[in-house]
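User: For my dataset I need records formatted as: sequence, then structure tokens, nothing else. Please produce one.
Assistant:
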Amino acid sequence: MLFGQSVFQSVLDRLKAEDDEAAEQDAPTARVSGLNAGLAFDVMEGISAQSSRADQAYMETMGFAPPETAPESSPVPPTSPEPDPVMPDHLTRVAPEDIAAELDISMRDTAQGLSEKRRAFAKKNHPDRVHPQFRENATKRMTTANLLIDQALRRLGR
């Protein structure tokens, strides 16, 4: 400890003091309040104002043409409403017997095999992977399938 400070704190104080001195030396003589130097840039002669934008310059170097603006008088085709989603057949089967038949759990299944069945079932039925209107059925199916697989895993442990 140096003068009531830890070595670490004294090093931090010295670095801050050096940084403040460097900032005073590099400070510009005149500064406009509110303008950030990172926002200012020069547009050299011969360069269009459009290509002075970073995104436009990128598009030009990649060979993409700027998007054409549609004439004001061109009619916009009317958009048809989205058709109602159709529930997949497998989501209609929520009875435990149907789900058990779909999982096809047998006494020969290993823990790894049951895990694979769980992942395959979840890939097809997880509520996050289906349309919001069908999430209730998907949740019921996943809950039942997890229950059946967990019961099979407990039987394996005996």
